[in-house]
Amino acid sequence: MFYEMGESPSLIGRIERLFIAVVLGLMTVITFANVIARYVFNSNVLWAVEATVYLFAWLVLIGAAHCVAITAHLGVDAAVNLLGKRAKSIAALLAVAACLAYTILLLIGSWNYWYPFVTDLSFLTTEDVPMMPGFGWLAFMNGGEPYEKLPRFIPYFVLPLSMVLLTIRWTISAIEILKGKRTSIIASHEVVEELEDRDAHVEGTANTAKETTNG
Amino acid sequence: MVIALLVLGAPVGVSIGLSSIVFLLIYSNGSLTSVANTLFDAFHGHYTLLAIPFFILAAAFMSTGGVAQRIIRFAVACVGHLPGGLAIAGVFACMLFAALSGSSPATVVAVGSIVIAGMTQVGYPKEFGAGVVCNAGTLGILLPPSIVMVVYAATVDVSVGRMFLAGVIPGLIAGGMLMVAIYAYARWKKLARGEWAGWREIGKSGADAFWGLMLVVVVLGGIWGGVFTPTEAAAMAAVYAFVVANFIYRDMGPLKAPSAHGKPAMIKERAEHSDTLAMSGGAAVLGGPNLGGGTAAPVADDPDRPISLLRRPQALFTAWFHKDTQEVLYDAGKITITLMFIIANALILKHVLTEEQLPQHITQAMLAWGLGPLMFLVVVNLILLIGGQFMEPSGLIVIVAPLVFPIAMQLGIDPIHLGIIMVVNMEIGMITPPVGLNLFVTSGVANMSMLAVVKAALPWLGVLVIFLIMVTYIPILSTWLPTMMMGPETVIR
Amino acid sequence: ACNVSSNDNAESSGTAGGDEVAANDGCDPGEQVIKFSHVTNTDKHPKGIAASLLQERINTEMDGRMCMEVYPNSMLYDDDKVLEAMLLGDVQMAAPSLSKFENYTTKLRIFNFPFLFDNIDAVDRFQASSAGQSLLNSMEDKGLQGLSFWHSGMKQLSADRPLIEPTDARGLKFRVENSDVLVAVFDQLGANPQKMSFSEVYGALQTGVVDGQENSWSNIYGQKFFEVQDGITNTDHGVLDYMVVTSTRWWEGLDENDRNDLARVLAEVSTERNQAVNQLEEEARQAVADAGTEIRELTPEQRQAWVDALRPVWKRFTPDVGADTVKAAQAANQG
Ligand code: NA
Ligand code: NA
């Protein structure tokens, strides 16, 4: 959470960053537009509330996988930091194992949850979000009848998708720990070293906000 | 099990989530499918939680966009000349920034990064500055807007607007108590004081901070003026902060001063500010190159001045996609993700507990003990204080609130009052080890070890504990303002 | 007292939660467990009362065979999620508002036709008719089995100014439930329908984010909407009703004996509680009046003006429900 360090600007990393920025931007703009529509034009964007909520789910669930990659998830490292290097790696491996167990259990649940929506329950649509242009061909999912509103299996797809991504990310973490490339899967609280570290290769952006704004 | 996983260094969200799932599989006939359903419902079924990303985004725009520096300059001008003036100004600045941001660590970062360095340079012990800001920063969740209040309101279904109002008076009192304590300490220790810079400087710095401070008016005025709901207000705040940062202060985005491009703007300015702060004894102009003259006519091609919108009108369009905007969106998104990942998993735990009917059993047990309201509140405080040692506030609220809320209602405790008690407990949790977000952040901005920050924050923690007792047993502190503004509670008892 | 249900029109959810501390008795092994999830309190709202009564009767009369657990206050699922959870087998019974079934059938839109039923007795007669009973089976192909109708009451209209003529609503913002018919109703009036999270409605009415709403008396009283409105107009313009549903698969998998007994108990509970609704509504209406809120009655001519203004909505949605059904519903007005 606090400082990102040595993040590799890989293509996937850049796509994920852009995804996060765009989704949060969209959420803000849609909500803003709804207020303007209601207050200034005495009109409405009936799908605004529902669409924003779905974007929120996509932001957090997909973003959770990205946060594994940049070691941004919050945790408690006070105890682990008392350990020696080797013990620390073992603890980290156990922690990753727990994460994998969590993700795989949820992957099963997510798949069981999502699967009916592409099969038996494919007729279920969202309440307000209109069908996106370009998806007309999905009508075959609805017994040939075109969807008026976005079918639910599209927003819900984020569940299995994010769990697959998380599984991949945790596996990569496990490999990195085994190779000795990293010792922890949570954001470190020993910020001091990292501050120095960051000063060594500062990025050119205005940056205080980077630190943290949550709580 | 949660604690075992936490100790191993697993993420908080996973620790809670995995424990819930295992509990569910062992003790109940609930399915993995229902867990997935609940995970998605954390977003789909909790519209009001949307305020969280928006408030985080607003705070990010304000920190990056120079609002914080202007507020500090104003605070120093107002109270910098008192004994311990810079520290009092730090508290004052924290209160002002708290009124703009929904989060405590954000407040510490925005104010602390400038003030602590400045205090060290005028000769205060560094621990003093760090301890004061670490404590005062907790006001970020007590003064509205507040992310923790949003979470509480969403969890037990009370009005967010009411909660916001309820935080105002306790927030002012807590800030006041901290200031008085600092004043007394400074007289006792004979700490340096700044020079009185005159009303002119107050006026000037106030005018410069005006657009930032107007955010309070926009948010609260918009809510009570019927323009938008509290959730929407958060999105409006984000858009407003974006506009102020890009088009008025121009500390970021396409109109930023050319000299600031390609440099780590904040770090550079931070150093300069602390220099000026030190030289002038704290009260003088806190002006880096971009400050003070923000609205003056730009001199042609002065690389230190922001660019006029007239000279670059396309900025109206490009600002939305500018690299700085993207960066801020990404940073705010990242914080949202880590926080919501915990909250979503806490909601899974809540679902599992509900399925096992645990809240009802606990309620019955507690009532069977014959706890009165006074003792009950002591128990609540203890649970929260202990929980706050290990958990991040929002996640803790999601788990504890459904357990204690029904009992509180049975005992006739006001739900808004209960909410404020919880928030104050969370404040204390944030500055106590091992998990204390403010501690982590302070150690970062003050460049001190965690242990040193803990020691530094400890004396001032006492003030907050006294304050907690006051808030717990004087309900009217919390309930008076919302009742005044919004009429009596709509809760059906 | 937990979830913020996002589109729930009328339930006194949430804050009322404090009153429910009665834990479900543990079910014995061998008993068929029925999880009933709803979104109101257990002892004040018509639906909550009915669910509690059903629970009590099943757990005594069918002891050893069936065991009902009630999860009130959206503790487990809100009305948007509960039907999904039912189809996925995680909950067995629920009673969502009829507007929640839009995805499963358009036939139930009949209940949102404006000014279709004169009063709740007409609704009763229609639901008892063969046309009404067949609606219970209208979602079989989607896996849902309707078992019974439960009433909340007739809907009344309110805003931050008096509503007498249909034109009075023009330009006002109304918070509406998720239903194409209801959106069309307010569009037809020249008003501005708004979607809004239910937990935000009271605050939005108070500050003026929205101007008005429509609801049954017990909800207007229970949610205290009357405090922040300029009087209530007694329009009886629509009906707020619930359908007790279960999943077809679960229902058909039951032992025949159990299923028949369960259906009988449910039918008796429904009749008893639906008859009591008139009185609950009257009490709520009286309580609103006692609080000093003005209740405006419409003359027959004034009411007819509303009916005429909204007739185009019937026309638009008749193909969805079938002309026969509309006829049967109108016929129910002649007792
Ligand atoms: Na705040
Ligand atoms: Na703590």
TrEMBL record, chain A:
Mode of membrane association: Multi-pass membrane protein
Primary location class: membrane
Entry annotated with the keyword Hydrolase: no
Taxonomy of the source species: Bacteria, Pseudomonadati, Pseudomonadota, Alphaproteobacteria, Sphingomonadales
Coiled coil spans: none
Job description of the protein: Part of the tripartite ATP-independent periplasmic (TRAP) transport system.
Cellular compartment(s): Cell inner membrane
Name of the protein this chain belongs to: TRAP transporter small permease protein
A GO biological process held by the record: C4-dicarboxylate transport
Domain Tripartite ATP-independent periplasmic transporters DctQ component, first and last residues per copy: 27-178
GO cellular component: plasma membrane
Sequence similarity: Belongs to the TRAP transporter small permease family.
Annotated source species: Aurantiacibacter rhizosphaerae
Record key words, sorted: Cell inner membrane, Cell membrane, Membrane, Transmembrane, Transmembrane helix, Transport
Pfam families found in the cross-reference section: DctQ (PF04290)
One example GO MF annotation: transmembrane transporter activity
Transmembrane segments: 18-41, 53-80, 92-114, 153-172
Description of how the protein assembles with itself and partners: The complex comprises the extracytoplasmic solute receptor protein and the two transmembrane proteins.
UniProtKB/TrEMBL annotation, chain B:
One example GO MF annotation: transmembrane transporter activity
Domain TRAP C4-dicarboxylate transport system permease DctM subunit: from-to ranges: 1-253, 323-475
Protein's cellular compartments: Cell inner membrane
Keyword Methyltransferase: no
Keywords from the named record: Cell inner membrane, Cell membrane, Membrane, Transmembrane, Transmembrane helix, Transport
InterPro entries xrefs: DctM, TRAP_DctM
Pfam families, per database record: DctM
TM region positions: 5-27, 47-67, 74-100, 106-124, 131-152, 164-186, 207-227, 233-249, 335-353, 365-387, 394-413, 419-441, 453-476
GO cellular component: plasma membrane
Membrane topology qualifier: Multi-pass membrane protein
One record GO biological process: C4-dicarboxylate transport
Family designation: Belongs to the TRAP transporter large permease family.
Function: Part of the tripartite ATP-independent periplasmic (TRAP) transport system.
Subunit organization: The complex comprises the extracytoplasmic solute receptor protein and the two transmembrane proteins.
Name this polypeptide is given: TRAP transporter large permease protein
Source organism: Aurantiacibacter rhizosphaerae
